[in-house]
Amino acid sequence: MARLVASFRVGALEVTQLSDGSFHRPLGGFFDGVDPAEWMPLAGVASPEEGAPFNFSAMLVRGDGHTTLIDTANGTRGVEDSWEGGAQLFARLAEVGVEPGDVDTVVYSHLHPDHIGWNLTPEGVPAFPNARFHLSEPELDWWLHYDGNDHPMRDYAREKMVPLVEAGRVESFVGDRQVTPSLTMVYAPGHTPGHCVQLLESEGEAALIVGDSAHHPVHLARQGWHSTFDWNRDQARAARRKLAEIALHKGAIVTGVHFPILTLGRIERDGAGGYRYVVTEGPGGGAADAP
Fold this sequence. Notes:
The protein is of the alpha/beta class. It has helices at about 35-45, 90-95, 135-145, 155-165, 220, 235-250; strands spanning about 5-10, 15-25, 50-60, 65-70, 105, 130-135, 170-175, 175-180, 185, 195-200, 205-210, 255, 265-270, 275-280, 290. It has a seven-stranded mixed β-sheet with strand order 1-2-3-4-5-6-7. A hairpin with a 5-residue loop joins strand 13 and strand 14. It is globular and about 50 Å long.
């Protein structure tokens, strides 16, 4: 049985990963064009069709005077009976003592459907009634305003974002932006035009929440391996290098919203001009290397 909620500390911050659906998923689409013989051993599967642990989740940050949610997870879209905790983000929040009205800040890595699913309730009203919503201006423009965007997820993004924009609840920015005393949005395009990762800093400690710059820890080391969903592969590879260098400079914990709960690690240089992701805490509680 998968864990659906778990927390870790970053200085004075409590960071909690909240699952909105945990399941096993074939990973071939996340290693597009890579020989399965190369990626399968690193992903821990014996065939491209074998499912591996995968999460749709959000991250809750408390301890700096704000209650901040990183992404609003998958919502009710495409939920299957086999998923543990599917479409149950609010149950996970309640488990850690948070009501939707307590959330005052929401930040988005990007606007793919599994990151904006709980913007609105099924009745179409804002699910976090007291929050302001922050994201990169290139991301907002791409999905809401660029007529040349014929992406199949465009209409869903507009459905979930336009009511918040029209209510005056959305704040966009260009480049990096410090949103709360402890959270900085770091511009890292490639997966989408305005993708951002989140840098958390408190009391000399740091963590990076990598969004979809890495769907799997292997991407943090094999930075040229790409998901079929990456919009610009050159930029996505550059973004992974950028976040690796930030993680090294800050000595940051690195984790992601799609990683099994709870997967924490640190970036190290591999001695050959590349990087490796060293798992310090994994779903089983142990440590392992992800070269």
